[in-house]
């Protein structure tokens, strides 16, 4: 289904663009001569946090696809996550697998996981 494929790639591109802009803004704080040490340290910590989130999302997507899903996009926001999978109907066992993968990779509890079928 082309529309589903387009959906997944557009979500990934949009997520990447948002993160790139955030990192760029933080990087400019770090490189700005007039930034305080505190501001620089906070910006570096935020960059590090974003890098960890991006790694968690990537790992989750890879592991979910490895479980047999054709497509997966994971978007972490604070202590919550949305996981979009290409599916015509999730089985309870598949939902459990996704919840387990998310918890193992990102420590996010099932109550904060939203799984969306596409």
What does this protein structure show overall?
The longest helix is centred in the N-terminal third of the chain and has 30 residues, at 2-31. The chain has three helices and three strands; from the N terminus they run H-H-E-E-H-E. Helix 1 (2-31) packs antiparallel against helix 2 (37-66) and helix 2 runs antiparallel to helix 3 (92-106). It has helices at residues 2-31, 37-66, 92-106, and strands at 72-77, 80-85, 113-117. It has a three-stranded mixed beta sheet, with helices on both faces.
Name the average pLDDT: 95
Number of discrete helical segments: 3
Helix content: 55-70%
How many E strands?
3
Radius of gyration from CA coordinates: 17 Å
Q: What is the 3D form?
A: elongated
**Elements, N to C (H/E):** HHEEHE
Strand content: 5-15%
Spatial ordering of strands, largest sheet: 1-2-3
The N- to C-terminal Cα distance equals: 10 Å
The major beta sheet can be summarized as:
3 strands, mixed
Taking pLDDT < 50 over at least 5 consecutive residues as the criterion, the unreliable ranges are none
Q: Which structural class best describes the helix and strand composition?
A: alpha+beta
Features:
about 120 residues; 3-stranded mixed sheet; 3 strands; about 65% helix; elongated
């Amino acid at each position: 289904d082309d529309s589903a494929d387009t959906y997944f790639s557009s979500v990934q591109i949009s997520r990447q663009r948002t993160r790139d802009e955030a990192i760029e803004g933080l990087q400019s704080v770090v490189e700005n001569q007039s930034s305080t040490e505190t501001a620089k340290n906070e910006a570096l910590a935020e960059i590090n946090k974003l890098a960890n989130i991006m790694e968690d999302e990537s790992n989750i997507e890879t592991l979910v696809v490895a479980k047999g899903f054709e497509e997966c996009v994971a978007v972490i926001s604070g202590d919550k996550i949305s996981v979009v999978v290409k599916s015509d109907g999730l089985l309870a066992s598949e939902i459990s697998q996704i919840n387990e993968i998310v918890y193992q990779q990102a420590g996010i509890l099932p109550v904060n996981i939203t799984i969306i079928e596409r």
